[in-house]
Amino acid sequence: PDTLPGVERDDIDTFIELHIEQGPILEQEGLPVGIVTAITGLRHYVVELTGRSDHAGARPMDTRRDPMPAAAEIITDVVTTALRFGRPAVTTIGNMRVEPNLPAAVPDKITFMIDARHPDPEVRQRLFAKHERTIAEVAARHDIDVTWRVVADHDPAVSDPGVVATLEEAARTQGIPYRLMHSGAGHDTQRMAKKAKVAMIFVQSKDGRSHTPAEFTSIDHAVQGINVLTEALYRLAYE
After folding, report:
1. Residues 84 and 111 in one domain
2. 186 is in which domain, residue-wise?
3. 143 alpha carbon, distance to own chain's centre
4. What's the longest Cα–Cα distance across the chain?
5. Dist. CA 112–CA 49, nearest whole Å
6. Domain harbouring 222, CATH code
7. Count: domains in the chain
8. What does the DSSP assignment read for 115-130?
9. Which of 129, 153, 218, 221 has its CA 20 to 30 A from that of 76?
10. Which of 112, 139, 154 finishes a domain?
11. pLDDT exceeding 90 applies to what percent of the chain?
12. Helix 67-85 vs helix 121-141: angle between axes, to the nearest 10 degrees?
């Protein structure tokens, strides 16, 4: 780690990443290529709700400190909030742990992760603030102890307008239909944006699937993305 500053590059002018979309938009619109104008910002929360474990049959409902109803309400609210914000806001609960995780026991502790994303910095902050209010208010109403911590927090990255314009001209020259779009997933480009002018090219993902064995992109769509990239690199290098 001590040697890392010595290997940092300062000679990169432009970075363009070709990637599968990992979502359904290009396929739904019948377009082979997307040109990315911004990469979403994300935040990961780990939320811990603590009540008291009791026997599931012997402990009356009105005397329980059960964290499960609070967890269910928080999860429902944060997902519903993202829906109300509208596209491109997204919120996902992808990990959950219940303790003691027994069918005949009221849980003692529930831990889950919230993944919230939006490419607009201002809207992103409003989304996060609403989620944090929900966590606190729901836990208090259910008399459940709560803690949460941020374990990942990445700012949005905006594509360079000049590079985007070059990619658009490259697509038009190659006769390849395209649309401008944001990226809902994080990418290497997000890191490179601190060092160079950046942009991305997306190609179709079959059924919008990714991070699954069903992930697939046709050779034809990959080639069209490569053609846009090649044309753009030539223009940036020689024009």
Report:
1. yes
2. 4-40+156-238
3. 31
4. 78
5. 9
6. 3.40.630.10
7. 2
8. EEEESSHHHHHHHHHH
9. 153
10. 154
11. 86
12. 150
